[in-house]
Specification:
5-stranded parallel β-sheet; 2 domains; FAD/NAD(P)-binding domain; alpha/beta; single chain; about 25% helix; elongated; 19 strands; 8 helices
């Protein structure tokens, strides 16, 4: 099916939804395309995850987010964004991956997905960063016992589990697995638990390590993963420990290959910052905009819901102004 739209938004996360709401306000004919479920990244968060932010900081378009807790849960966030999308009748196509984007001579884009072909004057990329894990690049990382995502503790009950990393996700996983009856060892590249770990959780994990309930190797890295063991490089030398599962929560990165395929220029300093004008969020490719965490390159902690929701207003205003100027 061939579909024409003024604006095509790639990604139905919170910021993609915010962009849709702003386009609707400006009477822009838009469509949101999402390869997975609504707010797909949030859906794939751990079942018992609790946000660092309070509910009002997760709100979009001033629509109240009422939570039963000071820090809302994953399920509360999913319910909130579902209601935002359905009550506002946002135009969203789910489970539809983008396959190809071509820019035509007249400045329009031809977007091919698994299900449709779209012709659009403007594209907004709001794809987040949760799909591509940062790999350790060690032998055995491809074994079935290794996961770069954590959903819940039950599979690791009564199992010897290594959790790699010392971020919020790693700490939450280690504590939950230990509390459900898992034998947990943390392998941390740095010298301590991460400074950005939630302030009410940090003392908990530090005390569990101090008392020996959770074992931890700091200034250490995994050298090799075997079927029943893991080899760890520590300051005291090589250690080989028994192991059933490895949960490697080493972070994630945006799909830079997709950005480059669109013609977006990235910095060559290893951080891969995409080029865009912060006054309009327009990239070096005319009529192609970025919104949300994707703007931060490898610094995926730089942009999050509460400080990037403003991108939606900036982009809708910029597109509306362009259209109005062309009509004069």
């Amino acid at each position: 099916m061939n579909i024409e739209k003024e604006v095509l938004i790639i990604g139905a996360g919170p910021i993609g939804l915010a962009c849709a709401l702003e386009c609707k306000k400006k009477n822009l004919d838009y469509i949101v395309i999402e390869k997975g479920a609504l707010t797909n990244s949030l859906y794939n968060y751990p079942l018992n995850m609790r946000f660092f932010s309070t509910s009002e900081k997760l709100e979009i378009d001033g629509i109240p987010f009422i939570s039963n807790n000071p820090k809302p849960t994953r399920d509360e966030a999913l319910e909130y964004y579902r209601r935002v999308a359905t009550s506002n009748k946002l135009q969203i196509n789910l489970y539809e991956a983008i396959q190809k984007v071509d820019k035509k001579g007249d400045g329009t884009f031809l977007v091919t997905s698994e299900k449709n072909t779209y012709k659009t004057k403007n594209i907004v990329v709001s794809t987040g960063f949760y799909d591509i894990p940062n790999l350790m690049h060690v032998p055995g990382e491809n074994l079935s016992k290794v996961s770069h995502y954590y959903k819940e503790a039950h599979p690791y009950v009564m199992q010897k589990t290594i959790v790699v990393g010392a971020s919020n996700s790693s700490v939450d996983a280690a504590l939950e697995i230990w509390r459900k009856g898992g034998d947990v060892t943390m392998v941390v590249r740095g010298s301590s638990i991460g400074e950005r770990v939630k302030y009410w959780v940090k003392p908990d994990i530090e005390n569990r390590i101090k008392e020996g309930s959770i074992k931890a190797f700091f200034n250490s890295e995994i050298e090799e993963i075997k079927e029943t063991e893991v080899v760890i490089k520590t300051p005291k030398g090589i250690k080989t420990i028994e192991n059933d599962f490895v949960v490697a929560l080493t972070g994630y990165q945006p799909n830079f290959t997709f950005l480059e395929s669109l013609g977006i220029e990235l910095s060559n300093d290893g951080k891969f910052f995409p080029q865009y004008d912060p006054k309009t969020m327009e990239t070096n490719v005319s009529n192609l905009y970025l919104a949300g965490v994707i703007c931060g390159g490898m610094e995926t902690h730089k942009w999050f819901i509460e400080n990037s929701r403003i991108h939606s207003k900036i982009i809708a205003e910029a597109i509306s102004n362009k259209i109005n100027n062309l009509q004069k």
